[in-house]
Design a protein that fits this description.
Order of helices and strands: EHEHEEHHHHHH
CATH architecture of the largest domain: Up-down Bundle
Strand order of the largest sheet: 2-1-3-4
Mean pLDDT: 91
Strand content: 5-15%
Number of strands: 4
Distance between the termini: 15 Å
Structural class: alpha+beta
CATH class of the largest domain: Mainly Alpha
Oligomer: single chain
CATH topology of the largest domain: Glutathione S-transferase Yfyf (Class Pi), Chain A, domain 2
Low-confidence stretches: none
Radius of gyration: 17 Å
Length: about 220
């Protein structure tokens, strides 16, 4: 059965790949799974029909038969567990890849999202000038740790996995801040992720929704 995911009718980033449906699209592309996309407006996201799929009124959601999922980490893990291509066959390596998925969304992403909030939503607050450097330092602290662990390796733990997919997706949010450029190995790591054919297809599909140049799917 072909799964259906939801995505923004019009993404706040204009289709630059930062909306979280891109992560799910990327995972589906990596495993070669066709999928359909149902676009939702901001208004529709707060209506009962969508809230039944995502209790917090966000995107993406994932539906396959009578299964409905929300949260990108959960969705990507489900895809990776059901189809070959995103998790190693070795049990220990598989467990480590899943650990990196959790690290991406639980350890690395929170300070990055805090930075985005401080720079975009709180930029007019009187305390932003003092708070922003502190937030940026928290991001740098995490990147220093991640950079040290990655070293000169291509991926976090052997071959590319769902852990890398999630981590690259999280780090992409830093591109406009310039902080990522302070860590050349992480910048190169993200570039390797973007160079993957599956990522390119996912990015182009999400961009197409916002430019109207191609049909969804």
């Amino acid at each position: 059965m072909t799964p259906t995911i939801t995505a923004f009718e019009r993404s706040p980033d204009g289709g630059k790949g930062l909306a979280r449906d891109t992560r799910v699209r990327w995972a589906l592309e990596e495993v070669g799974q066709p999928y359909e996309v149902r676009l939702v407006s901001f208004q529709a996201m707060k209506q009962p029909a969508h809230l039944a799929l995502h209790p917090f009124g966000q995107i993406p959601t994932y539906q396959e038969g009578d299964l409905a999922l929300f949260e990108t980490g959960s969705i990507v893990l489900h895809i990776a567990q059901r189809r070959a291509g995103l998790l190693p066959g070795d049990a220990n390596a598989r467990a480590r890849a899943i650990s990196w998925m959790f690290a991406a969304v639980n350890t690395v992403e929170p300070p990055i999202l805090e930075l985005a909030t401080a720079r975009i939503l709180e930029s007019d607050k009187p305390w932003t000038r003092e708070r922003l450097p502190l937030v940026m330092d928290r991001v740098r602290d995490r990147l220093k740790q991640l950079s040290a662990r990655l070293g000169d390796a291509d991926w976090l733990d052997g071959a590319f996995s769902a852990g890398d997919l999630m981590m690259v997706s999280v780090l992409l949010r830093l591109r406009m801040s310039g902080i990522l450029d302070e860590f050349p190995n992480l910048s190169a790591y993200v570039a390797r992720g973007e160079a993957r054919p599956a990522y390119k297809r996912a990015f182009e599909a999400q961009l197409a929704v916002n430019t109207g140049k191609h049909p969804v799917g």
